[in-house]
Amino acid sequence: MPVLRDIVGHKQVIASLKYALTKSLVNHAYIFSGPVGIGKKTVGLAFAGTLLCRRGQGDACGECDDCTRSERGLHPDLHIIRPEGASIKISQLRAVQDSAAFTAFGTGRQVFLMEQAEKMTLAAANCFLKILEEPPAGIVFILVTDDPAGMLPTVLSRCQQYRFSPLSREEVMQVLANTGTGACYNINSVRVAAELSGGCPGRALTMLDGPDKRSAMLDLLMRIVRERPGSVFLPVNELVEREDLAEFINCLILFFRDVLIWQITGSTELMVNVDRHSYIVELANTYVKPEVMDILITVERASSLLASNVNQRLVLDYVLFKIAGQGDD
Ligand SMILES: [Zn+2]
What we know:
Elements: H1 11-22, E1 29-33, H2 40-52, H3 65-72, E2 78-81, H4 90-101, E3 110-114, H5 122-133, E4 139-145, H6 153-158, E5 160-163, H7 169-178, H8 181-184, H9 187-196, H10 201-209, H11 213-227, H12 236-240, H13 245-265, H14 277-286, H15 289-307, H16 312-323
Helix pairs in contact: 2-3, 4-5, 7-9, 9-10, 11-13, 13-14, 13-15, 15-16
The structure holds zinc ion.
């Protein structure tokens, strides 16, 4: 379990939490929200560890009995609540009520870290609100969610909210290095994963550990490019079904950005996909510079369109036709 001082990024959130810790302004309930893999739970656990450490001031000492127990997930005053099946149920919140009635073990605090808090049923959320009406002394809730909009407004308004912002690529790479993951992969893969992660180290880790999606996506792209400008194969159906469509679009942006970099500088220095250099050169020889810029503008526009509620098929059609050289201007 990390301590607050070792966490990469999220500086404002951590500064604010530390301020509350040193000034004895700790709240009864917090909401940590932000995209999947951004580090909300990591910060939540570090904060919980700090709340339970009797030796540290403003941060866990990382060495005492409390810290060792927290680290092992065995601290009697640190409770993790997760969905049981599809939801967090009222019985789980009743158990919280019961255990909150017992005196805490060490610091006089009890910390409840709730994962996927948006999955509380209505009854569970009402039970949670009831606990907060007369909170037992020393109780602290940390609600972690990537979908705060899916939570009751009354729950949101009773908690102090922290919204987590994406890390920079360098920070994501730093996290990968700290976890030891960076050393297991070649530096190019780490760079690409960091770039594609959208500032979420957890997503970068999943990408490195999971199947090589970038290669699959590059294969698709090269099929379109090599068949152009005849009657091309356009994998619209294949793509529109994918959950990782945003990732695919992100890949496209990075590939074509590299193509432009190669066309302008003739050097790999600023490239992300250095390990796919031969493809980049092939693409650079296929398109003239204005075409590449046109594709980039189209794909970036598509990227923001796809983030809103648009007809994905239409947007994809337009992007793929543009790449195939059949886009209308
Ligand atoms: Zn400690």
